[in-house]
Amino acid sequence: MEDLQVALLRELEPAVEANVNRHLAMAQPWQPHDYIPWSVGRDFAFLGGEDWVPEDSPLNPVAKAALVVNLLSEDNLPSYHREIATQFGRDGAWGSWVGQWTAEEGRHGIALRDYLVVTRGVDPVKLEDMRMQHVIAGYDSGNKTALEVLAYTSLQELATRISHRNAGRVSNCPVADRLLARIAADENLHMVFYRNLTAAALEIAPDAAMAAIRDEVIGFTMPGATMPEFRENAVVIAKAGIYDRRIHHDHVVQPLLRFWRVFDRSDLGPEGEQARDDVARFVAALDEVAKRDEEKAAARANTPAYA
């Protein structure tokens, strides 16, 4: 008897091919080097110049935190490639997507690192030390099923798109803003691919797909959550409104649930109905937590500072 996951991947293949073709028709090629202000760069001490000092950075603390998190998240691409290649395979339409996605994602890390090093935005020695730690540790999805990978990547790509776009806006640097907007456009197309494949899976195996959506919505964490200093930087990013629980609820979870018609479906069995109920309870709880976060932020804003 054919393995259920293998059978599902095979049945999804026509949708994969259609969405790969859609992606290729919409994706706009771009060159990472075009987005880097090379003229502001200069040698470091190893080549007779001067090593980085904090005063070199043109970025505010929020932009530094956001760009470091975004870059280190992109740096773990070898692990991400392994995860999706293992789940989806390297043949046929699935393999075409794995290769295309990996190649496009690779540009993001290249461009972000070039920007930060050339502009001396952050300490390049510390950045490299953090990259080494993060990549050596790698990323482990926890043996997700193919359906769980599709649901997770839908959430993750949309979250990443928003994080990149908002980081650019708070950077106070037109070059960074333009670069991050370009990267965010890639991430949006990647999200659309995974979102559409999850929708196709719901038509083929509604109960199993709904259970996967439930598990990934409830258990979602960003792939960079294990990087050095992630927790501290995440707090800075949240307080700055780049990415917080309100954004996650309103602009990531809810739009995807609406697209998948999670609360409008009539094709679910008992397992799917239970999964949908679990999603509803979690989303309501997330909304309440986001409201409390907003109330705390408003209280801090209204608290006078005393000398």
TrEMBL record:
Q: What keywords were assigned to this record?
A: Fatty acid biosynthesis, Fatty acid metabolism, Iron, Lipid biosynthesis, Lipid metabolism, Metal-binding, Oxidoreductase
Q: Which cofactor does it need?
A: Fe(2+)
Q: SUPFAM superfamilies of this UniProt entry?
A: Ferritin-like
Subunit annotation: Homodimer.
Its family remark reads: Belongs to the fatty acid desaturase type 2 family.
According to UniProt, the name of this protein is Acyl-ACP desaturase
Q: Which organism is it from?
A: [Mycobacterium] vasticus
